[in-house]
């Protein structure tokens, strides 16, 4: 029986003498600092003084800060090596960064300015031509009105002349005895014959 009491001790000793193998997960791969991959969010604190709750006029809230997320966290899309990034001064947001400039961009901007100036000059000339055209159109309208007035006056005059001609034909067609021209003869002492 003495041997039976020693058996558990032998098992314990044999387990203790073996090297124990611990299984651990593999360490994560080296990743750039989070600041080079993602921008932090910008949180601002605003101090709010005492105020009465609009829904409960019997309650007042003491002054306290209110925190507001001004800019949410977002991915850093700037190219470049993450090790080169300065952690204390992250690169500026691309939306607020000045546009890149080089000779090609400057040349294109100058070409666009020249094209814009040319278009503005042509627009000014076109506006001037349009004003002149409107002036000529107004003059033509006045001439057309005057022409229409003259045509109407001419038509009225022609009607009057035709009426006068008809009256003249009536007068000449039926001679009246009172309107006879006296016969004139040199021998008759300038006295008309009855």
The largest sheet, given as strand count, sense and whether it forms a barrel, is: 2 strands, antiparallel
- Spans with pLDDT under 50 lasting ≥5 residues? none
Listing every helix as H and every strand as E from the N terminus to the C terminus, the arrangement reads: HHEEEEEEH
Q: What overall geometry do the principal axes of the alpha carbons give?
A: elongated
Question: What is the alpha-carbon Rg in Å?
Answer: 58 Å
**Strand content of the residues, in percent?**
5-15%
Q: What is the CA–CA distance across the termini?
A: 203 Å
- How are the strands ordered across the major sheet? 1-6
Total beta strands: 6
Number of domains: 2
Question: Can you put this structure into words, describing what you see?
Answer:
This protein is α+β, with helices and mostly antiparallel strands. The chain folds into 2 domains: 35-97, no CATH class; 100-174. 47% of the residues lie in helices and 12% in strands. The chain is built from 3 helices and 6 strands, in the order H-H-E-E-E-E-E-E-H. The strands form 3 sheets. A two-stranded antiparallel ribbon has the order 1-6. Strands 2-5 form a two-stranded antiparallel ribbon. Strands 3-4 form a two-stranded antiparallel ribbon. Strand 3 and strand 4 (60-61) form a beta hairpin. It is elongated and about 170 Å long.
